[in-house]
Design brief:
Length: 68
């Protein structure tokens, strides 16, 4: 199982956390998503490509880059 950590910008509240979580969960190959509002991080487990995660989060209106 692969784990990808994304740095997410633009999240201000739990609604943002939910929308980023749902956005990432919709990507084929994503099994588990943990979003941390205070750290501005999303930890994604699954075999989806990181580029797809970044693109989906950006399309949802937030900033994203791959941390690890
Ligand atoms: Cu919000």
């Amino acid at each position: 199982m692969h784990e990808t950590t994304l740095q997410i910008s633009g999240m201000t509240c739990n609604h943002c956390v939910m929308s980023v979580t749902k956005t990432l969960q919709k990507i084929p190959g994503v099994d588990n998503v943990q979003v941390d509002l205070s750290k501005g991080e999303a930890v994604v487990r699954g075999n989806a490509p990181a580029e797809a995660m970044v693109a989906a989060v950006k399309a949802a209106g937030y900033g994203a880059e791959v941390k690890s």
